[in-house]
From TrEMBL:
The gene is mrdA. This is Peptidoglycan D,D-transpeptidase MrdA. Residues 266-601 form the Penicillin-binding protein transpeptidase domain. The chain crosses the membrane at residues 20-40. InterPro entries: Beta-lactam/transpept (IPR050515), Beta-lactam/transpept-like (IPR012338), PBP_dimer (IPR005311), PBP_dimer_sf (IPR036138), PCN-bd_Tpept (IPR001460), Penicillin-binding_protein_2 (IPR017790). It comes from the Bacteria. Belongs to the transpeptidase family. MrdA subfamily. It comes from Spiribacter insolitus.
């Protein structure tokens, strides 16, 4: 029998077809899986792998511009940049971020504040962007990270420039400091300018001139390996450095002003009355901007912010105080110019004052009174009775109108952030703010700078400069004008009097305060061969009942009177105007006036040494 008769050809075909079908189905399934995977990678995961693939070859890295320097009027560096190292992380190259942070914290010290700031920056960052984790690394930190570099993909130690303030606490409120940028600070800014950096000006000049100091970001295209480690820089678009800025501030005079305040809480503002350039802006107590810029932990910063003496509070711009008797030259001039008082006529001061049909007694600071005083002696001896009566005769609305012409109750427009407006009360002001009518007794209190009246030290200095200029206002500023760069105009109009001779009378009255035999600040006029025009002030912090006397020893120090003094010198050709406020310092004549003399004398000696004073000026 032949073999062909034994073969089952139909069965064989059936087996072959089954096997081919199975192979086809398997091939189709495998092809479907492959197509599905390709689709998943190409479509669903396109952005991720495209960015990762690009980053394996070329990474775009922002290059932070060098922050501009801050210089004083003589070119001394007040804020500079020093080399340092910081730790950065690219989150996309980290598998387990929590594990990474835990491992890093075991190697170097990471504070909760640093981790929180990192997480906040991570949430707003773009893909494959380096995010700062620790801004300041010690040499030991850098060494430990270098040895363990292989353990931390996506982690880099980057060199950078950190802000440094060579004079430490001196000038801290004027210069300010930089700190880690927050989300709220980024809302109104161009985020692209702040890629690759985490610092921004927080206070003072650093904040006011952030846009000029900041510069423009650059860009690097960096070739990397699969782990994201940089291999080489392909090309580089260099950053544009920030501008260096020069201030009108004199750091030596600033140091003198802060030393004069010593341990007292208070402020001293000194300016050139010809230009409005601020020579010194001291607020005590101060703070170390280097410590804040390096990054204080939360507890340390809370301790600083919550300190009862408020070292972070800029008293020169934001402290509001009753100006007390320093308003008397202004009010006396206003009374003479408006015809409410004749400068040569005298008023008898017996130590008390009464309003018609009012039982209350207003008392002079000198219980027995000053006797007969004219305008000059009323300022020199600081007679309260003279100004009680003058304010009553003028009325509160006229007092308000005249005093605001000197800038009282207004902002000065100084080129620093955070200035507060003073208060120069009126009937309308009280009705709008307190919903109450005005009383005549409140007018009497306003006449000696008490009651509702409040002023900041920068406002007192600016008004004093206007007085020194015989009505020509200035706008205080810290930025030194460059070439023809103009300072913005003052916020008050020039004050022109019908009788310009009254300016000399008012200035003579202020000179008498310091150089007259009965002047309240005559002690600081000794041994001076030039003349200072000044005015002392003592402002009550708490009210004293009618039948009580002020006893400094019987009350807490923080309820003691504030001490004030305003002045300009030389009286004939002013080169400096000064305002001093000493919180709870007691008498303006014994506490504030000597501080002002130290500042004035230091500046006059400096001008003389530099040959900036005309021969025979003394």
């Amino acid at each position: 029998m032949s073999l062909d008769l034994l073969r089952d050809k139909t069965g064989e075909r059936r087996v072959v077809r089954g096997r081919l079908l199975a192979a086809g189905v398997l091939a189709a399934l495998l092809f479907s899986v492959l197509v599905g995977r390709i689709a998943y990678l190409q479509i669903a995961q396109y952005d991720h792998f495209a960015a990762q693939s690009q980053d394996n070859r070329v990474r775009l890295a922002p290059v932070t511009p060098t922050r501009g320097l801050i210089l004083d009027r003589d070119g001394r560096i007040l804020a500079e940049n020093r080399p340092a190292f910081r730790l950065t992380v690219i989150p996309e190259q980290v598998g387990d971020m929590d594990a990474l942070l835990e491992a890093l914290n075991g190697l170097i010290d990471l504070t909760p504040e640093e981790i929180n700031a990192f997480e906040e920056a991570r949430r707003r960052a773009r893909g494959f962007q380096e995010i700062p984790l620790k801004l300041q690394l010690s040499d030991a930190d850098v060494a430990r990270l270098a040895v363990n570099r292989h353990r931390f993909p996506g982690v880099e130690v980057r060199p950078h420039l950190t802000r440094h303030y060579p004079y430490g606490k001196i000038g801290s409120h004027a210069i300010g400091y930089v700190g880690r940028i927050s989300e709220s600070e980024l809302r109104d800014r161009d985020r692209r300018r702040y890629r690759g950096t985490s610092m921004i000006g927080k206070t003072g000049v650093e904040r006011a001139y952030e846009n000029r100091l900041r510069g423009e970001m650059g860009l690097e295209r960096i070739e990397t390996n699969a782990l994201g480690r940089p291999l080489s820089i392909i090309d580089r678009e260099p950053p544009i450095p920030g501008d260096d800025i020069r201030l009108t501030l004199d750091i030596e005079l600033q140091g003198v002003a802060e030393a004069a305040l010593g341990e007292h809480r208070g402020a001293i503002v000194a300016m050139d009355p010809r230009t409005g350039g601020i020579l010194a802006l001291a607020s005590q107590p101060g703070f170390d901007p280097n410590a804040i810029s390096r990054g204080l932990d939360r507890q340390a910063f809370r301790s600083l912010r919550g300190h009862p003496d408020q070292p972070l509070f800029n008293r020169a711009l934001r402290g509001r105080y009753p100006p007390g008797s320093v308003v008397k030259p202004f009010l006396g001039l206003a009374g003479a110019a408006s015809g409410h008082v004749d400068p040569d006529e005298t008023v008898f001061c017996n130590g008390t004052y009464h309003l018609p049909n009012v039982s209350r007694t207003w008392r002079d600071w000198k219980p027995q009174g000053h006797g007969h005083v004219d305008l000059i002696q009323s300022v020199a001896q600081s007679c309260d009775i003279y100004y009680y009566d003058l304010a009553y005769q003028m009325g509160i609305d006229a007092v308000h109108d005249w005093m605001t012409r000197f800038g009282f109750g207004l902002e000065t427009g100084v080129d620093l952030p955070g200035e507060r407006q003073g208060v120069m009360p009126s009937r309308e002001w009280k009705r709008d703010n307190l919903g109450e009518p005005w009383y005549q007794g409140e007018t009497v209190n306003t006449g000696i700078g008490q009651g509702f009246t409040l002023a900041t030290p920068i406002q007192l200095a600016t008004s004093t400069a206007m007085f020194a200029n015989r009505g020509a206002p200035v706008r205080p500023h810290l930025l030194e004008p460059v070439d023809s760069e103009a300072i913005e105009p003052p916020l008050v109009e020039p004050l022109t009097l019908d009788d310009e001779a009254l300016w000399q009378t008012a200035i003579d009255a202020m000179v008498e305060v310091v150089h007259g035999p009965r002047g309240t600040a005559r002690a600081i006029g000794e041994d001076l061969d030039y003349r200072i025009a000044g005015k002392t002030g003592t402002a009550q912090v708490i009210g004293i009942a009618q039948d009580e006397e002020y006893d400094e020893d019987a009350i807490d120090e923080r309820f003691h009177d504030h001490a004030l003094f305003t002045a300009f010198a030389p009286a004939t050709s002013p080169r400096i105007a000064v305002a001093v406020v000493v919180e709870n310092g007691g008498s303006g004549s014994t506490t504030a006036a000597p501080m002002a003399r130290r500042v004035i004398e230091a500046w006059m000696q400096q001008l003389e040494a530099q040959g900036e004073l005309a021969r025979g000026w003394r």
